[in-house]
From TrEMBL, chains A, B:
Basic residues composition bias: residue spans: 515-527
Amino acid composition bias (Basic and acidic residues), ranges on this chain: 471-485
Protein name: Elongator complex protein 1
Domain ELP1 alpha-solenoid: 41-245
Organism, scientific name: Rousettus aegyptiacus
Alphabetical list of Pfam families matching this protein: A-sol_ELP1 (PF23925), HB_ELP1 (PF23936), TPR_ELP1 (PF23878)
Domain ELP1 TPR: residue ranges: 252-415
Residues covered by region (Disordered): 471-530
Length: 653, 653
């Protein structure tokens, strides 16, 4: 049967005789003449809604229970009204069993959205609790009302309201049951439920082992025994355990229980209070359960325990290859030697030097350490930092200058040379380095230009082929729309066509850069392979990368142009300036050809036009949708060549 | 009359009698019975093309001259063939006058593209010279051929070929005329033209003053006199001038002529050869005409003159506020003091220190200079560089640490503190700075979040209003398409509506940042003013900026989190980490709401659909085109929040 409330299958030929007013009954006459009464759901729900609006909860509840309408509707129909009239609801129902039934059926789902959507004429649709805390809210509101009306009478319902919460409040429930046992001094209230009864009821709702564990978690052995007795557990098993526990010092006892219940955070908190002789056990648990952060809060920062936990934490982080955080943890607790290793491993050179300072190394030791640190920094291509370390900690400004030259930090290299008055290094190293770099830049620009032109040429070919294929499609006027069709055609055209669009094998001369580029290429989303379905996107991506790579060179080029001029290598400077300008201009001129308006807008232009029909529009719209994933939208934005960046040295004009 | 070659107006009722075969004549019978002969252009051009294809230049030329067909067609019809058969052309024409006529009509325009487009049946269309050097190419090719056939006979045509070049080669022409005068020893060739005749002819082609100036430019006084005599110039004027020149030393004479002709580059070249006593005059001219670059090439780099010119150049650049280039020029010629000032002015601190080193300053002088340099660098917010200068050149590591703290370079500050073993600074300055910075970041994140939410809320309002307005449009089904209409409606709705979308006055607490933001805001393309036509774009732009501004903070936040942890300000660290994470999450969650697919594609989605008609599609397409300029396309790409950036310190979880 469908959940739609208005449709109901009946025998063919049935006739409606009447609808009973103010009721949910519909009288039908069957083809054979007999009368039948059905409660049509549309009528039922309409009636229930009316009752609920009038706060006639009793009538609504009875009817829903009889006709098995989900009880959540009582709340969901109008949450605000229900929550404000919970007392009326309870007083009208006036039955612990029925209230428990209501609790049992509660769920987060809003049945007015799923099972019983209101008819279209319904006026306002109130939004449910957006936080998805519906059940918890009802439980808490109902409990408050019941405790107000008669906590004894509604005892079991109150317990149910705790159990039904998203995180069942079993400790509270157990505590309340425990209270029912009373001390024997106060006579039980007349309509009170006995602890026995309550516990029995509870075991219907909750798994006995759960309840036992939670009772243990209260550290209240009376409670534990009470539950244990009701459970199927063997007293020979749990009694010795409880007796052992009882003999323990309170904190250690609680620790043992926490550990048994796998509540490790609580466990170390209790263990930490047991005195220093238990610290090794505590530290083991901390390491075992990775509770360093929680553990550090339990000890004062200047205690030995704090330091021990920190060292263990740091070592754990190092194992996870989290060197910098590890170093920070070591540094914070004064484990400078370990901090030094950690910071060295991750190239946090300033922190490493701070740690080294606190180890009071000899001058030679410091120099040696400086050298390893510099080596690490060079690996990470941080030449300036490496040079600072060598100059200031290893007193080796000569090596520092060489590193600066390797890192193309020309002006900083010059500064050191003048600082130490070693102008001879200009001739022996600086000038040759600059000239070498100029040569490398020339070669790099050459390869960038070649790649750019190759990709651009191929892109135009691919677009042409695609357009032809698409045209063929539109001519058919059959929206096949499946990309694979489109591209299998294209690729067959490609493989059979002339070689003009094929790539010559690339032969980059800058090895450092090319390996970097290779790694980048591997990360690419689309394949540049000829005839691959999204080859045009791959080409756009590659072209974008070439342009951005060139654009990023501006500052470096400006730096070298300045020193080329300074050392009177005007010709070399002019040559590089010209090459770079030509490269930029080539790219700039080509941008509108590559990032055309048409292709920018997903070829939106050809879709509409004097010759388009409704079919052709829909067909190509369909095609576009499938062939260009939205995620690639940024590919259709041309890269920026910033005209304002002042890379050029006008002195070299 | 139109240039179309196939249409020709004739009297109504005219009849074609016959077309003369192998000729261009068309015989018509007029309504009154008389016969008329016309050369119909279609026939004429067809015939000319045939002749040209058969290399019958004579026939083609004669016909074209008679019927006033532009002579460029001889070349343009098939440039390759013509240029390969220039000798045949000259030999067939065999007339100096006709050849000169041909030269005179030459122009860059390709007449087959403009005046005489070939009929559609024409087979191949050969592209003209792409470089637009057509005239020069014809002149040079023809001249070579004429000099080969008979240089004496074609003398005047040869001269014409020089004059007709894009840059007329008047010196060469004058030289050739001069040669015609002969030395008197060799008898003139039989068919030779006299110098007199040639000069007369030349004056028909070229303005006499131009010719006089160019003759002067050859530094050949015979030539000058020859031209001067033919000109209308008063000998009392030019003779004294020429006599004064004649008395001068050759280089000075040439300098004087160059200067007179305003050829300043040549002028300084000649003046530089006149000896050191003329250098001041030369330097003045260099300064006056801004010829520093050219002048520097005339003197050896280690000469005093080179240095003097460089200094003048540098001073010129300084006046133009080009401090860095100025400094480079000074540094290159060894003007270290001036270089120092220049590099100081632009904050090129390393270069400035190089210059200072070469001035052999005292320790105190160097320290003083270091302090001003550091001040300059702080102005440019280069705190690290400033600290390096103070530490290494002013021996003031304390001030260096303070600058590093100001620049949020916590780890570098710590390094210096440990390097100089001044751990007391940690308590007195570093920790307070870190805590202050934490507070500022908190406030900044607060204001970023507020701005973001405000703009986002307003954007949704604006979109709603726009959609309503657009809907009203579409319902009319009249594509008005004019944006102003659309938005005058919108803005009137806005001004009359409730205040919920209005901004409260912003009250940023970070003054340094807010002034930066203010400057940024001034650069914005669109107005955020409420109801402004592109307010939604302005909001997108502003939102993009807020997101990017937050995204850029990641590294700074990571840095401060590390030191907060190191100094056990865990709570402050956690607080900042949480605030930053919340800010990022708020933005991230909102991105799809702000950069919706619909608005990303220029609201392309609502254009098509089951309810759209051809009219509605076109109307909204039209509207989109006008309302969203393509330049703003990038506004529709959501900013990136890079998930991979590791800004978070897990230690603070």
């Amino acid at each position: 049967m469908s959940h739609g409330e208005t449709l109901r299958k009946v025998e063919r030929g049935s006739r409606i005789v009447t609808v009973v007013p103010q009721d949910t009954k519909l009288v039908l006459q069957m083809p054979r003449g007999n009368l039948e009464v059905v409660c049509h759901r549309a009528l039922v729900l309409a009636q229930i809604r009316k009752w609920l609006d009038k706060l006639m909860f009793k009538e609504a509840f009875e009817c829903m229970r009889k006709l098995r309408i989900n009880l959540n509707l009582i709340h969901d129909h109008n949450p605000k009204v229900f929550l404000e009239n919970v007392e009326a609801f309870i007083r009208q129902i006036d039955s612990v069993n029925h209230i428990n039934l209501f609790f049992t059926e509660l769920k987060e789902e809003d049945v007015t959205k799923t099972m019983y959507p209101p008819p279209v004429t319904s006026a306002v649709q109130l939004p449910g609790d957006p936080e998805g805390r519906k059940v918890d809210l009802i439980c808490d509101t109902m409990r408050a009302a019941m405790e107000n009306i008669n906590p004894h009478k509604y005892c079991l319902s109150i317990l149910t309201s705790h159990v039904k919460k998203t995180t069942p409040e079993l400790e509270i429930v157990l505590q309340k049951v425990h209270e029912l046992q009373g001390t024997g001094n106060v006579p039980p209230a007349p309509d009170a439920v006995s602890a026995e009864e309550a516990l029995k009821y509870l075991l219907l709702l909750v798994d006995v082992n759960d309840l036992y564990d939670h009772s243990l978690g209260t550290y209240d052995f009376d409670l534990v025994l009470m539950v244990a007795e009701k459970s199927q557990k063997d007293p020979k098993e749990y009694l010795p355990f409880l007796n052992t526990l009882k003999k323990m010092e309170t904190n250690y006892q609680r620790f043992t229980i926490d550990k048994y219940l796998k509540r490790y955070e609580k466990a170390i908190r209790h263990l930490s209070k047991c005195g220093p002789e238990y610290f090794p056990e505590c530290l083991n648990l901390i390491k075992d359960k990775n509770l360093y952060n929680e553990a550090l809060k339990l000890y004062p920062p200047n205690s030995q325990q704090y330091k021990d936990i920190s060292v263990a934490y740091g070592e754990h982080l190092m194992q996870e290859r989290l060197y910098e955080p590890g170093g920070l943890v070591f540094a914070r607790c004064g484990a400078h030697e370990k901090a030094l290793d950690a910071f060295l491993a991750c190239g946090s050179w300033q922190q490493a030097l701070c740690a080294a300072a606190q180890l009071h190394l000899s001058r030679d030791q410091l120099a040696g350490f400086g050298r390893s640190l510099a080596g690490k920094l060079v690996e990470q291509r941080k030449h300036r930092d490496a040079a600072t370390v060598l100059e200031q900690y290893a007193q080796d400004y000569e090596e520092a200058v060489l590193l600066l030259l390797e890192g193309a930090a020309w002006e900083e290299a010059l500064r050191l040379v003048y600082k130490y008055n070693r102008l001879d290094i200009i001739e022996t190293n600086i000038k040759p380095s600059i000239l070498e770099a100029q040569k490398n830049y020339m070669a790099f620009l050459d390869s960038q230009t070649a790649t750019f032109s190759r990709h651009k040429k191929r892109l135009l070919v691919v677009r042409e082929l695609k357009e032809q294929a698409q045209q063929a499609h539109l001519d058919d006027d059959v929206p096949r729309g499946r990309e694979s069709d489109l591209f299998s055609e294209t690729s067959s055209v490609v493989s059979g066509s002339d070689m003009s669009g094929k790539y010559p094998h690339s032969n980059s001369r800058i090895s450092a850069r090319s390996s970097k580029n290779r790694r980048k290429a591997e990360r690419k989303k689309h394949s540049l392979k000829e005839g691959s379905p999204l080859e045009d996107l791959a080409l756009l991506e590659a072209l974008n990368e070439v342009v951005q790579g060139t654009e990023k060179l501006k500052d470096e080029i400006h730096q070298i142009l300045k020193v080329l001029f300074l050392f009177e290598f005007d010709e070399k400077g002019r040559e590089l300036q010209k090459a770079f300008e030509d490269t930029l201009q080539l790219m700039e001129r080509s941008l509108p050809e590559i990032w055309t308006l048409t292709h920018q807008q997903n070829s939106a232009a050809p879709v509409l036009g004097p010759n388009s029909t409704a079919n052709s529009i829909m067909a190509s719209y369909q095609q576009q949708k499938t062939s260009v994933p939205v995620l690639d939208a940024e590919l259709f934005i041309p890269p920026k060549i910033n005209q304002k960046t002042q890379w050029k040295l006008n002195l070299l004009e």
